[in-house]
Every structure is written in C-alpha cells, then in structure tokens.
Design goal:
The structure is a single chain. This protein is of the alpha/beta class. The chain has a domain of 213 residues: Alpha/Beta hydrolase fold, catalytic domain (Rossmann fold, 3-Layer(aba) Sandwich). Helix content is 30%, strand content 18%. Helix 1 links the parallel strand 3 and strand 4.
Length: 305
Amino acid sequence: MTPRSPRPAGTKTQHAKGSAPSAARTVRLTATDGYALEASHYRGRGQDVVVIAGATGVKRSFYEPFARFLASQGFDVVTLDYRGVGGSRPKRLKGFQATMRQWGELDLDAALRWALRELEPDRLLVVGHSVGGQLLGHASAADEVAAAYLVGSQSGYWRHWPASGKLGIFTLWHLLIPALSGPMGYFPSPWFGLGQDLPTGVAKQWAHWGRHPDYLLRDGEEVRRRYERIRAPLAATAIAGDRFAPEAGVRALLAMYPNAQRRLVLEGDVGHFDWFKPKREALWPAAAAWLKDPSEPIGNPFPRH
C-alpha cells in the first residue's frame, strides 16, 4: 500500500466533532463491467472512510446501525449491495449471471474506488463481514486500504468445521447447492437461514470453493498473488460457537493473507450476525478504536472464557 499524502487544510468539508451523523444518502456505483450497483453513504467528519463489505446474501440495510455508530465516531461510511442482492438485484433473479468472484473483483472494488474518488479520504478502511473479508484480496483497489477489521470471515472449506457442523456444511457444498441451483435458476438461501436468494453462479462458485482445502485460492496462482499483495494491518474475529465461521476457518482465512499484519481476536458467543445488531453495540467501540489506530491492542468486552 502506498501511503496517502495528508490533505491540505480547507480542501474538504469538515464536520464538528461529536456532531450527529446526517441521514444516509443512496449512491449509484458502476462496476468496470458496466453493472449498476446501489450503495449508501453515511457522513462523518470527512477524513477516514470505512467501506463495509457485507456477508453473503445480506442487504446493506442490515449494517445501518453499525454504520451510523461509525459515522458518530467521525468516519465516513459506505455500505453496498453486491450484484443480485438488495438494491443491486435485478427484477428477475432466475437466470441472472453473476459469480461470487465478481462480488470482489467488480462490486467491492467499485465501492472502494468510489470512496477514493468521491470522498478523498486520508485513509481508506474496510470492515468485512463473513464473505466480505474473504473477497478483499480480489479487489484491485485493496492496495489502497490502510487497515481491515474482519468479523466472522473464514475459509469455507468444509473440513474446518467441528464435528457438530461438518455434515451440514458438507451437505450444503456437495448436495444442496448443486441440486437446487440449476433447476430453480437461483439458490433459495432463506430455506437454510443464509440470507437472500443467490444467483446460481454465485452459489455454485461458493460451493466449488468450499469443497477444496484452498477455498477461493483454488482458482490459481494469479489469485494467490492478489492475496499476497495485501500488507495492511488486518484483524479477524473468531466468535465462540459461530456455526458459520469456526475458529479453524478464521485462522485459515488469515493464512490466505500471508503478508498482512495479522491479528486474531477471540470473542465470546456474541453471534455471527448479532455482532452487527444494536444489542451487541458494546463491541463496536473497540473495533472503531482499532481502525483509528491499528498499532494499539484491540479491546474485547466479550472475551472468550
């Protein structure tokens, strides 16, 4: 990552410290392949920008409470819907062509580049939830990211799950997604508590990765080199009892970023999705403090016992 030069005083609108964040505005992004995406911008104090890369099939509105908290701490925040999800979903999902790799290479990359171009931050930061942390290396603009905080982000290889969850994830990758995605023209994720319906190509690639020990790195040396280029500080939470992201999977994901300045945070049973809900807001100040200064230790109000 090339350090960004400090912005001269007066070149960007500043907001009073401690002022309430303004209402989110909807912004339209265009990926490099021309696909139109929908995102939201929460204004903070116009210095550092956090892009929230969401989980599989989860609308950006889910992250609104956390985004507003970050804005109250001075960050500008951008949330996005990947193609096929939320405001970036076509009228008809059946037959819609998309892949999970495109979510990183095109969609997340579009959000990062929009933030750099339109908001001109001192530092570009990322909070990745689940697949959002997995896909960071696919975005070419990730070279500009100063630090990333990952929540429940993991390698999805099925053998990383403990015995109690191994059969379920094996069945998802090997049986359910292959059997349902083709005939239905999409994958009915809500049937299995996995967010919105997914485009067939997204679901099939997800399962394709999950059946292999290298997960998304199985796509070849070019992909592996993309992840090797990430050198920024990267913190990843492993949540106790997380049936979507077991600790072994979180550790395996960290290994995919071999040159990053990596930290593992072991948290109590706060929930894979609940982490972003207001009932877990006691977790958020520690994450915000680390994003402000990644050289500092990470506070943990819910340590694992």
